[in-house]
Amino acid sequence: MSEPKPKLAMYWAASCGGCEIALANIHEALLEVDRHFDFMFCPCLLDTKRADIEALADKAIFLTLFNGALRTTENREMAELLRQKSQVFVAFGACAATGGIPALANHHGIGAVLDASFLSAPSVDNPERIVPGHRTVVPEGELELPRFLARVLAVSEAVAVDYSIPGCPPEPEQIVAVVRHVASGKALPPAGSQLGCTERAVCDGCSREKKGLLTGRLVRPFETLPEAGWCLVEQGFACVGSSTRGGCGALCPAANMPCTGCYGPLDRTADPGAAALAAVVAAVDPGGGNGREEAALHAHVREALAGVADPVGTFYRYALAASVVADRESEGRS
């Protein structure tokens, strides 16, 4: 009788589901996953229940790919449970690694999130102004929803993470490379390593040419079409590829869209937003500051940077939970 295969689990917390799609996008390499692993837990694909995981012995799961940030008490409980049951626990994708898009809610607070979702959005039809509560009594009984955590967390803020695979989502070829390495039986990288990425900037893999020019002002993508083959930053787009870790193949610039930083800062010790801001501002022409009055210079810089309508959403898009401003208290927090 053949030896049982090591168990592989995947979990979806606060995220969009793109990480599951990325796994499906490895196409025929899924057969390799099946050959090497018992893929036994993935709520969006399999009918394994939480009770089945709780019944396992500790460390019975060899590898867990945990995607999504921690928004609710249930998210945190599942992270703790899967950490307990797993030998190797991986923060899979930007949301798990650094908070991702869900963590932008930390800039506003729970009250503002509920208001935007259920009351004030133009598409909402809610005349009774009903907002979900933790417990709701209905004729059939009492319904209970998980509570929101005070703020969205990166997974590493709640449990020990062995490795992180960045990206929104991680690219399929990077996923395949990681799975093949694990399946080969080769020694794993040092704990804390970033997998499925490179130590060089996105710009290193970008085919667009830098001409050494400064832009007069930053522009938003809807304002103009970029010139083919020319660096997007030099054309005024807030592309942060020069401060972002590579591994994606520079897909966004190839599609005429600026890099938004989903693979994380190139310098792991840097604040992600500060690194992204510095990369973009360095390409803006200060307008010949010599001899100009300070007020006029400030006005010029403000005008030049006006193309960034949402600085937090632009420079901390994927990493607000992991930044130095993560614990900023916002008005209306509840």
In brief, what are we looking at here?
The chain is α/β, with parallel strands linked by helices and 334 residues long. The protein is 28% helix and 13% strand.
- The percentage of residues in β strands lies in 5-15%
Question: What's the number of structural domains?
Answer: 3
Number of strands: 9
N→C terminal distance: 57 Å
Stated plainly, the CATH topology of the largest domain is called: Rossmann fold
**Helix and strand pattern:** EHHEHEEHEHHEEEEHHHHH
User: Any idea what the CATH architecture of the largest domain is?
Assistant: 3-Layer(aba) Sandwich
Count, helices: 11
Fraction of residues in helix = 25-40%
- Under the CATH scheme, which class of the largest domain? Alpha Beta
Q: What value does the average pLDDT take? A: 90
Shape: globular
The main sheet orders its strands as 2-1-3-5-9
Low-confidence stretches: 330-334
According to CATH, the homologous superfamily of the largest domain is: NADH:ubiquinone oxidoreductase-like, 20kDa subunit
Topology:
Elements lengths: L6 E6 L5 H7 L5 H7 L1 E4 L8 H5 L6 E7 L2 E3 H13 E7 L1 H5 L11 H11 L14 E4 L2 E4 L3 E6 L9 E3 L6 H13 L66 H4 L17 H10 L12 H12 L5 H5 L19
Parallel strand pairs: 1-2, 1-3, 3-5, 5-9
Antiparallel strand pairs: 4-8, 6-7
Task: Walk me through what this model shows.
By secondary structure, the chain is α/β, with parallel strands linked by helices. The chain has three domains: 7-101 and 150-184, Rossmann fold (3-Layer(aba) Sandwich); 110-149, no CATH class; 202-322, no CATH class. 28% of the residues lie in helices and 13% in strands. It is built from eleven helices and nine strands. The strands form three sheets. It has a five-stranded parallel sheet with strand order 2-1-3-5-9. Strands 4-8 form a two-stranded antiparallel ribbon. Strand 6 (135-138) and strand 7 form a beta hairpin. It is globular, with a radius of gyration of 22 Å. The N and C termini lie far apart (57 Å). Residues 330-334 have low confidence and may be disordered.
